Amino acid sequence: MPELPEVEALAGFLRERVVGHVVARVDVLAISALKTYDPPVTSLGGLTVTGATRHGKFLDLDVDGPHLVIHLARAGWLRWRDEIPSRPVRPGGKNPLAMRVHLDDGSGFDLTEPGTKKGLAVYVVRDPADVPGVASLGPDPLDDTFTPGALGAIVEGKRTQIKGLLRDQKVIAGIGNAYSDEVLHVAKMSPFKIAASLTGEDVEILHDAIVTTLRDAVERSRGLEAQDLKGEKKTGLRVHGRTGQKCPICGDTVREVSFADSSLQYCPTCQTGGKPLADRRMSRLLK
C-alpha cells in the first residue's frame, strides 16, 4: 500500500508534469472507484490543474477550484503516460484500469488496481475536507506541529498496542503497515508495547524514529519516476517484508506475526529482548 513517502513523491511528480495543464477529459472505467457525483467528474474537463499536494495517504489535485482526491488503497497505483493511447479502453473484465485522465498536450495518467479486492477511491469535491477520510485525519508527522509533546499527548492513556496506534489514520496521518514496522525497528520498540506505557524517554525516541524514518524515505523517493517508487520503497525497507532474512543492524533473523489480512515483521534482538512474539495464526494451526 502506498504510504506517506510514496504519496508525497507522487504529489511532487505530478506538480512537475500536470500543474499548468488543462484537463481534456476524464474517463471512468471502474464506476465503483468514483465515490462522489457532485460536482460531476465531467466538470473537470476544460479546467487547469493549479496544484498537487498530499493529505496523509490521499493525493490531491487542485483543478482550478474543484479537487480530484485519490486514495490508492492497498493495490492501486498511478501510471504516468507521456502519450495517452488513442484507442479507447473498455471497462470491466480483467482490465485493472479504473480511471484515465487526459491532459491538453496528449499526456496524462492512469489509475490502476489489479486483483479482485477493490479499494481504490476517487473523489471530486469542492474542498478536500469534504472527503470523510481527509476530514478525520490526525496530525501529519512531517508537520512542524508534530512535536514530542504532541506525540506524548497522543499516546497518553491509550491502552492499545503501539503498532496499531501508528497505523490509525485518525491518530497520525500517513503511516501504514510497512513504515510502522520500520519506525518501531528504528526505535527498538516491540510492536505489542502498550502506548500508555511509554515513558517520556520512549516518546522522544519514538518521535525521532517516526520523523527520521519518514523523512529519509521521502528523500530517497524525491525526483523518481512514478514507476520507480514501488521498487525504491521495497529496497529501502529494513524489516518489513523481510521475514527470514538477517536484520541489517544485529544480524538476527527477522520474524513475522500474521493476522487475518496482514502481517508485521520485527527483529527479536533489536525490539523484544530476544524473545519471539506469539504468532496467533500459527498457534491456532498447531492446536
Notable characteristics:
2 domains, N-terminal domain of MutM-like DNA repair proteins, Helicase, Ruva Protein, domain 3, 9 helices, four-stranded antiparallel sheet, single chain, disordered C terminus, 287 residues
Topology:
Blueprint: H1 4-17, E1 23-28, E2 51-55, E3 58-62, E4 67-71, E5 77-81, E6 97-103, E7 108-112, E8 121-125, H2 132-135, H3 148-155, H4 162-167, H5 177-187, H6 200-221, H7 229-236, E9 255-258, E10 263-266, H8 268-271, H9 280-286
Antiparallel strand pairs: 1-6, 2-3, 3-4, 4-8, 5-7, 6-7, 9-10
Helix pairs in contact: 1-6, 3-6, 5-6
Domain Formamidopyrimidine-DNA glycosylase catalytic: 2-93
InterPro entries: FPG_cat, FPG_N, H2TH_FPG, Ribosomal_uS13-like_H2TH, Znf_DNA_glyclase/AP_lyase, Znf_FPG/IleRS
Catalytic activity: Hydrolysis of DNA containing ring-opened 7-methylguanine residues, releasing 2,6-diamino-4-hydroxy-5-(N-methyl)formamidopyrimidine
